[in-house]
Structure prediction request, 210 residues.
Amino acid sequence: MSKLAVFDFDSTLMDGETIDFLAAPLGLEEQVASITERAMAGELDFFKSLIARVALLEGLEKTKVDEICADLPMMPGAFEVVKGLKERGYTVVCFSGGFRNATSPAAKALGIDADFSNVLHDDEGILSGKVGGDMMFGFSKGDMIVRLQNLLGIDTKDTLVVGDGANDLSMFEHAATRVAFCAKPVLKEAATHCVDVKDLREILKIVDTL
Prediction:
């Protein structure tokens, strides 16, 4: 039986928010982090918050972005949970409202089957402050998971989702097993399981009880 596991990236597979790390060299970490916090709590429209935060990154060199993204800290248990789920017959995918610069190298390192995220636009190697991609809206993760389920022939009952913030709500609607990982209250309310310790291996314990 084919099964699907979809993970958020920022503050789920990775210990932190990619955009906060990118804002640090510009001295804008606190400003960006405050917008991120409100967006993840469901207080701001995701699309508007993403556009506002990326605009603050204008002028950052793409090489610097890639350098930062190559060194992001993975969440404890990230490697083990991906390996364990694949051993249990899951296709493992990453959805992120963040950026391909971060999700693609992480997905390769972790052994994840595919990553869907956004792309930071650059003009001759310098960020323009513009962004586009697969995960621009609050509904994007839900929209993408339905397409993946149809493509792979996997039912809602065989779908596991893991996330931490409000923009994960749309994918929670299409999974029988919904794990809120060190999550905001708005997501915990929609979850079937909550993990409140920074250890993704706890998800394998949940899966083994299903």
